[in-house]
Amino acid sequence: KNQVEQSPQSLIILEGKNCTLQCNYTVSPFSNLRWYKQDTGRGPVSLTIMTFSENTKSNGRYTATLDADTKQSSLHITASQLSDSASYICVVSVEASGGSYIPTFGRGTSLIVHP
Amino acid sequence: NAGVTQTPKFRVLKTGQSMTLLCAQDMNHEYMYWYRQDPGMGLRLIHYSVGEGTTAKGEVPDGYNVSRLKKQNFLLGLESAAPSQTSVYFCASSYEWEAYGEQYFGPGTRLTVT
Predict the structure, then answer these.
(1) What is the pLDDT of residues B5-27, one digit of tens each?
(2) Mean per-residue pLDDT for B51-69?
(3) CB distance A102–B58 less than 8 Å?
(4) Is B42 within 8 Å of A106 when comparing Cβ atoms?
């Protein structure tokens, strides 16, 4: 079972509408949780980074929340634009052997924004 | 600044052939990483480097080797390619270790092994 589960797998919305993407994780302890945006054929681009002690972080129209007690995070997109069409990936940095941290990536949510 | 660049963008190999993927960054970052991305799966860390001359294994290192002879370059080698290595490979770099700092990704290399 994947340690970082994202839902929904895909989502279609109309331009201008809001949407919320979910990320549930089972790993602990972790150092931070990130959300990335990946356009088709491109590398991921960082949207937000939150440590376990933070519960919200905004980047323009993107707002991420984190509930470390329930191990859930969400990414809220406000007033969607056509350029928001992309895959959104949740990443949790998990403590590995030797005290290092290894990133664990979710499979992503594919968002399509229609005009 | 070009950021993180990867060479080549596409490559087709036959089983058993070897090749090297090149990653270059111009941000003076200490940390560099190689990932693979497969359909229906999240990115997985292959190898990483915490500085010039150092490398370490990630989650899925088997079948790959890496070298970091210069701070700005991180090379990923496949000595004997297998169809299971068909994937999109991403390089990334960061100023701090990824657990604490932002990672910058390259555009990816799409590799097909027949």
Answers:
(1) 999 999 999 999 999 999 999 99
(2) 94
(3) yes
(4) yes
